[in-house]
Amino acid sequence: EGWGNKMDFIMACIGYAVGLGNVWRFPYLVYKNGGGAFLIPYFISLVLCGVPIFFMEVSLGQQLQTGGISVWEIYPILKGVGFAGATISAILNTYYIVIVAWSLLYFFYSFRSKLVWGDCDNYWNDFYCNDPALQVNCSAPTGYFCAANGTFLNKTLGESPAQQFWENRVLGISDGIDNIGGLRWDLVGCLALGWILTYLCIWKGVKQTGKIVYFTALIPYVILLALLIRGLTLPGSSDGIYYYINPDWERLKTPTVWIDAATQIFFSYGVGIGSLISLGSYNPIRNNSVIDTVIVGIVNAGTSLFAGFVIFSILGYMAYEQGVDVSEVVDEGPGLTFVAYPTAVYY
């Protein structure tokens, strides 16, 4: 069994490498590490680590025509590396599918006539919710906003409706580790649906997968383009873009910036877990994998940069609405994307 054609393999690699790491993880790491300064160690890690290892793994699978575990039979003492990679892949899937479940929950909520992450009129909102509609007829002192209960609160304490939907409704963050809460049945259903969709995409082998990835790999670009156009039309978007491309050179002296850049490359390319070896094993043995690697590398890095412009144009608008700096608009963390994208959809 092999790929139907060369393009199937390239699209499968793009679909594998381009994903949550680009549109979810990359923007929040840029936000966390001082904006444009993060891009320098990112591209250095891409050239020195990401592309060479990607090429090596695809070539191993292609030349030996075998998967990520059995490939190590060429040097049996390292066979444990294959099992370790498979174990890591299984562990990664346990939380990767949770992110898919969160996304599916947003997807189902988007079919409501009223998008619930756009205002502060929901049961999960508290008085820290900074509703832009409420500020229109409000005469709060400089540096303050009008809370729903009629009081004035410092703008640095305010949270956008999208952020409260994410933290209070989707995550349901409790007041402490001693209160773990119960099962969230809506998320349980989305989690099950995520696994079912994954199974349906792969159950007939690589020939079917090679066709499905044409949709799964291309549709994100259509959505990102629509969000970027919308984001750039919002007031304050230029401030967010400036924060994104303007490097804070002092941050380059911080080791964590370089560590985050390298780990992002490994995460985005999915190296070291055997998947690329398996994908390469379905190639003809004489396939030119150098060209494939360069294409995937350019598309992967380009998508990350593109997603960054989308996210930061929206963050600039959110900072404008809340009257704070871009660096203070939301908490730096994995939830950044789940706040920014819904905001763009609403406004």
3D architecture notes:
- By secondary structure, this protein is mostly helical.
- The chain has 13 helices and two strands; from the N terminus they run αααααββαααααααα.
- The protein has a two-stranded antiparallel sheet with strand order 1-2.
- A hairpin with a 5-residue loop joins strand 1 and strand 2 (152-154).
- Disulfide bonds join 120-129.
- GO terms for molecular function: metal ion binding; symporter activity.
- It is a multi-pass membrane protein.
- It is found in: Membrane.
Helices and strands, with pairings:
Layout (H helix, E strand, L loop, with lengths): L5 H12 L2 H13 L6 H26 L14 H31 L22 H4 L8 E3 L5 E3 L6 H10 L14 H18 L3 H27 L4 H9 L9 H15 L5 H6 L8 H34 L13 H11 L1
Antiparallel strand pairs: 1-2
Which of globular, elongated, flat, extended, rod-shaped describes the shape? globular
SSE arrangement, N to C: HHHHHEEHHHHHHHH
What structural category characterises the helix and strand content?
Answer: mainly alpha
Reported for the largest beta sheet, the result is: 2 strands, antiparallel
User: Beta-strand percentage?
Assistant: under 5%
Number of distinct beta strands = 2
Q: How many DSSP helices?
A: 13
Mean pLDDT: 85
Helix content: 55-70%
**How many structurally independent domains?**
1
CA-to-CA gap between the ends?
48 Å
Q: Cα-atom Rg, whole angstroms?
A: 22 Å
Low-pLDDT stretches are none
In order across it, which strands form the biggest sheet? 1-2
InterPro entries: Na/ntran_symport, SNS_sf
GO molecular function, one term: symporter activity
Organism: Lytechinus variegatus
Keywords: Disulfide bond, Membrane, Metal-binding, Sodium, Symport, Transmembrane, Transmembrane helix, Transport
